Amino acid sequence: MHQIALGVTLLFLALLVAMVAALAFEEKLHARKSLITGTAAVIAVFLAEVFHVLPIGPVVNVFKEKLHIPVYIAGIEWEVIAIIVGSSLFVDVASRSGLFTWIAIKLTKRSGGDPRMLLYFYSLLTILFSAFLNNVTAMVIVGSLTAVSLERLNRKSLLLAFLLVEGFLTNVGGLLTLISSVPNIIVGQAAGITFLQFMLKSTPYVLLAAVATVLLAQMRYSIPSLQSDEERALAKQRVSAFDENDGIHSPRFFYTSGIMAVLLILLFATTSYLPYLRDLGLGFVALSFGILMLWAFKHEVGKFYSGLDWDLVWFFMTLFVVINVMEHAEVLSLIGSAIGGIIDLGDVIGSAGLLWCSAAASSVTDNIPLAAVLAKVLKAKETLPDSSLWWSVIFGSNLGGNLTPIGSASTVVAVTIMHKHEIRMSFIGFIRAALPFALLQIILATAYLLLFL
């Protein structure tokens, strides 16, 4: 390798900025994320060869064997890819059992149709689903059930408030576990944070932010509680019409899915402490459980393979290629120098500044490349695993998605459900509604970061 000229570094920086801008306006471009990052990856690798940025040649593994794998392929974080693919397969198959719908309807009936209790239960459900499924799946299940429940209870006027809260809480719930969101996986892997360590540190904040969000919504939107016995009896009668067993076609598979879900969570939490598995990693555990669940539908696995979000998988693979090239082109060092100015302000101002900058950036563009770049930068600076800087990126990249309707996939789904039910919500209107909640969550995250992490 030779010294990279500043002009070459700036050229690759311009390519990175162009990719991020294209991701921010993907709907305007009518292009999928994977197409944008794939194009950027092809251009980045070609330019890397032109300017001799990448060390092209065989890859030498730990056994000193020369493997003919292109260096840009070796730069992909395959552990992250394995976690995403394995977890997605597991969730898709488990959903066929009716397990998640059963839980949702059970809580709906448990509320007795009381609007305030529904808000509490759906908030809890949103956090749990977004923590162990993914934000989009959580928002689709809970948001759809919310629309049906409120319409049946003649409370459609409350739908806007419920959908907003659920959209916000998917990103809060996304902080609960290491696998809750992709930024968590990327930053957690880079920092060496285990599943259990992540959960123990994040849970108090998630509980605090969830309670604060629900109470603020309750005050701002005047969500009532049923007062008379007549109102309670009528509401209970209406929600009792829901049948939680409708989606259960095989009781055996239903119970198997529940047991497997608990086992998967337990293994995720203890992988770093178990012999053999601690070396194989979370990706192996996720893929193993995905394969085990596929045996339940061994004659139709093609449906689940085709249903896998290959756009997301290809997006990550090509994104890692771009980030790897940017690292060799010293773009990340340049960004690291800028971030270093924030970090050098001290533990308090540095951590808080990085959190707010991450939140602002993730509100207008995809938080995944943001997390990937910042994780690489912090790792290059040899940031200690217990440093609060890692958590600044985690909190900021997750919570910033609540500031705008394009900040996260779950807020996009929430707005889509609003439009489906003829609730008008403009871009500016969403920001006005979201700003008090997002600021409250980020302020609480800053305080929690500085006081407890």
Description:
The protein is globular and about 80 Å long. A hairpin with a 5-residue loop joins strand 1 and strand 2 (66-67). It has helices at 6-24, 26-29, 33-50, 71-74, 78-95, 99-110, 115-132, 135-152, 159-173, 182-191, 195-220, 229-239, 251-270, 277-294, 301-307, 310-328, 331-343, 347-362, 367-380, 388-399, 409-420, 427-452, and strands at residues 59-60, 66-67. It has a two-stranded antiparallel ribbon. With 453 residues, it is an all-alpha fold. The mean pLDDT is 85. The chain is built from 22 helices and 2 strands.
- Topology as H/E string? HHHEEHHHHHHHHHHHHHHHHHHH
The portion of residues forming beta strands comes to: under 5%
Low-confidence parts lasting 5 or more residues at pLDDT below 50? none
Oligomerization state of this entry?
single chain
Strand count, sense and barrel status of the largest sheet are:
2 strands, antiparallel
Summarize model confidence as the mean pLDDT: 85
Rg over alpha carbons: 23 Å
The total count of strands amounts to: 2
Distance between the termini: 39 Å
Give the structural class.
mainly alpha
State the shape: globular
